[in-house]
Amino acid sequence: MDSSIPCLEKLVDCFAALPGIGRKTASRLAYHLLAVDEQQAKEFSSAITEARQRIHHCPICQNFTDGQRCRICSDPGRDGSVICVVESPRDVAAIEKMQEFRGLYHVLHGLISPMDGIGPEQLYIKELIKRAGDPQVKELIMATNPTAEGESTAIYISKLVKPLGVKVTRLAYGMPVGGSLEYADEVTLFRALEGRSEI
Fold first, then answer.
1. Same domain, yes or no: 96 and 149
2. pLDDT tens across 133-186, in order?
3. pLDDT band at 195 (very low <50, low <70, confident <90, very high)
4. Do 18 and 81 belong together in one domain?
5. How many domains does the chain have?
6. Which stretches within the chain are classed as H helix?
7. Three-class SS of residue 103?
8. How far apart are CA 92 and CA 94, in angstroms?
9. What are the DSSP E strand ranges found in 12-102?
C-alpha cells in the first residue's frame, strides 16, 4: 500500500472498517473502485448517499424502510397476534426468505451485552413492551441468536412481558439438516435432545 497517497489510504481504511473486511480485501476493493469508469463510481457513491438519506427505522417494528412504515407492517394480510423478535434487520430478511412466517417483527438493533456497554436502554425494548401491551398480541417469538447475549436478552424481555399475559416462546435449536452427531458440540446436542419432537 502506497502510504504517500492519503486519500487512497483513507478509502482502504473506510472499507476495512466494514464488518468482515480485512486490510487485504479493503485494499482490493479500493483499487477496484479506482479502476471502474467515472459513471460506475458516481452510481456507487450516489447509492450510499441515497440509502443514508432515505432509509430510516419503521416507527412500529424498527426494521429499515424508506416509507412511512415498512412493507411488512403495512401488509393487512399479516397476523398481528404474533411478533417475532430479532436482533437486526438482516434476521428479518433471513426469516422472510422462507416465506412461511406470516406474523409481524420487532427489531432490537442489538443484544444486551454489559461487556460492550450495551444495556436495555440502548435497544428498542421499551417499544416492544408497548407493542406487547396491545390486546391483539398473543405471542412473542424470541428469535435472538443462541449466544450468551441472545439468551440473556430473551430472558430479560420474557420477564418484562410475562405480566402482560403474552405467551413468550423461543426458537428451537439443535442439529442442522445434514449435520453429523460426531461433529456437534455439547450445547448443540443438549438443545437437540431438549427440543426433540414426536415423529
1. yes
2. 999 999 999 999 888 899 999 999 999 999 999 999 998 877 777 777 677 777
3. confident
4. no
5. 2
6. 6-16, 23-35, 38-54, 89-98, 125-132, 148-161, 186-194
7. strand
8. 5
9. 56-57, 64-65, 79-86
Within 73-124, where are the H helices?
89-98
Backbone angles phi, psi at 189, to 5 degrees: -65, -40
Q: Which residues pair with 168 in a beta bridge?
A: 140
DSSP state of 38: H
196 in any annotated domain: no
**For residue 99, what is the domain's CATH number?**
3.40.1360.10
Whether 156 and 119 have beta carbons less than 8 Å apart is answered as no
- What's the grid cell of residue 1? 500500500
Q: What is the domain range of residue 40? A: 6-54
For the domain that residue 11 is a member of, what is the CATH number? Answer: 1.10.8.420
pLDDT tens digits, residue range 69-121? 999 999 999 999 999 999 999 999 999 998 999 999 999 999 999 999 999 99
Contact 162, 154 (CB under 8 A): no
